[in-house]
Amino acid sequence: MSDKIMALDLPPVDPLPEATQKYFDICQDKLGMVPNVLKAHAFDIDKLNAFTAIYNDLMLADSGLCKLEREMIAVVVSSVNKCFYCLVAHGAAVRELSGDPMLGEAMVMNFRAAHLDDRQHTMLSFVEKLTETPAKIEEPDRQALRDVGFSDRDIFDIASVAGFFNMTNRVAAATDMKPNDDYHAQAR
Questions:
Q1: In terms of Cα–Cα distance, which of 152, 173, 185, 165 is closest to 32?
Q2: What whole-number distance in Å separates Cα of residue 148 and Cα of residue 10?
Q3: Which residues, given as ranges, of the chain have pLDDT below 70?
Q4: Are 144 and 126 in contact (CB under 8 A)?
Q5: Which of 70, 78, 80, 119 has the most CB atoms around it within 10 Å of its CB?
């Protein structure tokens, strides 16, 4: 693939601030790469910091949702939106976190083809509806989540993760953001 990470010509701040370079170095050490989504935001350190702060809060902070469930939400939203970047990146995360390459592939294509428990299926059906027709979410949709064990706080977290990935999918599509090549081979 090309070294170009997106269609827009927005070079990163040079040199990167010390804190940003340290964060990128941690990514390189931990992930073996700096995700292109971070590089894409590096033209404006305030935007990068805002992006990483909300990502880290939604995806890594304490929640009634496990990391795998949050990644599954990212994949279902991205599947509905046909976001190539996020399907590749978060599909790899589902493969890695689940230890099941087939689950990651099924989630990318059609979560209904995956072997999911009732809790996961209900959560992902809610996320799909929220992505496709948000104005049609009603109390029975929230109650269905409660019925499979989600708290109201969990429902807020589900909605927040879905909302974040709807936003990032649109930015990735508008900028033709390219996923890192490394994602394609991960956890297979």
A1: 185
A2: 45
A3: 1-2
A4: yes
A5: 78
The domains of the chain, with CATH numbers, are: 18-60 (1.20.5.810), 67-185 (1.20.1290.10)
Dihedral-angle region of residue 12 (phi above 0 means left; psi in -120 to 50 means alpha; beta otherwise)? beta
Tell me how far apart the alpha carbons of residues 161 and 119 are, in angstroms, rounded to a whole number: 17
Gyration radius from the chain CA atoms: 17
Specify the DSSP class assigned to residue 17.
Answer: P
Q: Is 95 exposed, middle or buried (0-12, 13-18, 19+ CB in 10 A)?
A: buried
The amino acid at residue 120 is Q
**Residue 93 tokens, joined:** 């995360």
The rounded distance, in Å, linking the Cα atoms of 41 and 47 is: 6
- According to DSSP, residue 178 is labeled P
SS (H, E, C) 71-136: HHHHHHHHHHHCCHHHHHHHHHHHHHHHCCHHHHHHHHHCHHHCCCCHHHHHHHHHHHHHHHCHHH
pLDDT of 2: 54
Nearest Cα neighbor of 19 from 60, 61, 54, 52 is 52
pLDDT tens for residues 126-169? 999 999 999 999 999 999 999 999 999 999 999 999 999 999 99
